Amino acid sequence: MTIRQPRVGGRARSGGRPTLEEVAARAGVGRGTVSRVINGSPRVSERTRAAVEAAVAELGYVPNTAARALAANRTDAIALVVPEPEGRFFAEPYFSDIIHGVGVALAETEVQLLLTFASADRERRRLAQYLAAQRVDGVLLVSVHADDPLPDLIEDLHIPAVVSGRRSASEPLASVDSDNFEGAKAAIGHLLGRGRTRIATITGRLDVYGAQRRLDGYRAGLSEAGLEEDESLVEPADFTEEGGRRAMSALLRRRPDLDAVFAASDVMASGARQILREQGRRIPEDVSLVGFDDSAIARHMDPPLTSVRQPIEEMGREMTRLLLAEIASVDAHHPRSARQLTREQVLLPTELVVRASS
């Protein structure tokens, strides 16, 4: 025998959650109409929407998100995958800014964010098994190297994915990137405008497409000014502070006459500054210094660092927007293997922020 509790004061029956059917009865509409309102469908009149929303508020109805996700073959979760060692992730402001942007974009949704590292083969295999089990609806990939097998694996699994920074000019996945080429070229133009002519560069890892584009922008800036390329002024590094120190030491041994340095990240510029100071070079009197990212490091250096600002938080927001759009496309084109995706390639502008170091 079922005993029904009466409503008190217009609220739902005590001892149980109000149901979709109760909301429909209170609003005087069908169950399907309530579902459309809750899911944000535009196929509902404003009058009906207002009636349903009033009934939801009056009854204290809370949608059963787990059931909705199950019915839609969704998990309401996405993964942020970082194919880098954890040490680099926690040392570089870039990653925290990306996560902040992703968090802002997800704040008005019910989607959960999972963070995972996958720099080693064992981690990649474990991630592949997790993704193959369809435990997330999509993947955000950050800091992907050109030879990383993860994007192709995700593509083979037909999982919606967006990468932060293209792997090449012909990136097949949806991507969000900053204009690394123009940002670097602007930095070189600034240094040339300050009368610097022996401009060195400390590159990031050149298996990262963004680092290669910054090197291309450096070379283009010199070429447009009529200066010949000098490979003795180019030193590769790895986006770390220690890498910046090693590269700066090598450059000074090889070219003690250099009068400016463009480092492809603020972290590397910080390492370069330490070596310049140790060797008695004044900044900017003897050597001008410019970084890339415009992170908190740039603002807190002594002297404050001129840097190319890339909109990192906006990149995180835009990546999330693209991924949610892909997931919605999957929902509309089952099965996953048959989906039609737009695969947008978004390029965001950079800005040179001039400070005392140059």
UniProtKB/TrEMBL annotation:
GO terms for molecular function: DNA-binding transcription factor activity; transcription cis-regulatory region binding. It comes from Streptomyces mesophilus. Keywords: DNA-binding, Transcription, Transcription regulation. PROSITE patterns: HTH_LACI_1, HTH_LACI_2. The lineage of its organism: Bacteria, Bacillati, Actinomycetota, Actinomycetes, Kitasatosporales. Residues 18-72 form the HTH lacI-type domain. This is LacI family transcriptional regulator. Gene3D superfamilies: 3.40.50.2300, lambda repressor-like DNA-binding domains. The keyword Methyltransferase does not apply.
